[in-house]
Amino acid sequence: MNHVMGLDAGGTKTVCLLADEDGRVLSDVRGGGANLQLAGELGLEKVLHDLMERAIGDRPVVPKAICLGMAGVDREDDAATVRAIMSRIAYKARIVVVNDALISLLAGASTGPGVVIVAGTGSIAYGRDHLNRAARAGGWGYVLGDEGSGYWIGRHALRAVVRDADGRGRPTSLTPRVLAHFQLSRPQDLVGAVYHRSLSPSAVAALAQCVREAHAEHDQAATWILEHAAGELMASAASVVRQLKMEDAAFPFVLAGGMFRAVPWLGHELTQRLPHIAPRSRVHVLDQEPAVGAVQLAIEELGGAARIPIYV
What we know:
The protein is of the alpha/beta class.
């Protein structure tokens, strides 16, 4: 019996699944975020190696194929670095390194055409058509883009609080919620909390919970933030559909990432809006780990070569 491994490396958490050649998961282990830009090459290697070792444990198995899904590996420099890491720690297995959006799409739509909207710490829309051609929009990282992501939502929450404090913006119940989140007594203390603690993107993304709570009480600032987040995610999805000319096709939209669990309103809103882009589409929230898609690609690689979509 041959074995494979599928990994999903995200900004907040990393999941590693050990499975047999039929896709039965034998081990499921989780660790912290594994981001090349934030952790660096050595930090990323340590996280991945630790998870892979823990997934195998004391089993007398050696994976024959391993797939890693990770943001940023569409960029050739990052891809080369990640492949070098995997070649050092991957037990001489066959290696597949792909964008984490692809494994989310596979987990939610299997081998057919579809579009995935990922909203976690970062955000991206990614799609594949019936000819195995791919397109993407977003995924530029938290400085350049990632609109609609947890970081984007959290950053706008912080801005709403300081605008409230200055009298430049509307009063908002985000102020006491954000201050309580950081255990602060006044908005001015946010300067130290944000800049001196060097908050990670995932720490800023955690403020989405405050936005969800304020939105539930009809806070205007929180409502503005979430409505614009939904609009940004819609815009990315619409771009992918246009690039692949899928407006008239029947396919699933898959909603993946922690924001759809942290802020369920986003999923409900996109479920209503997305059919306007492609009337024959259907929408569902991913109900299993994206790493399941990585296992599928590892099994394909075990059988010869994984079919990776080619960008249009």
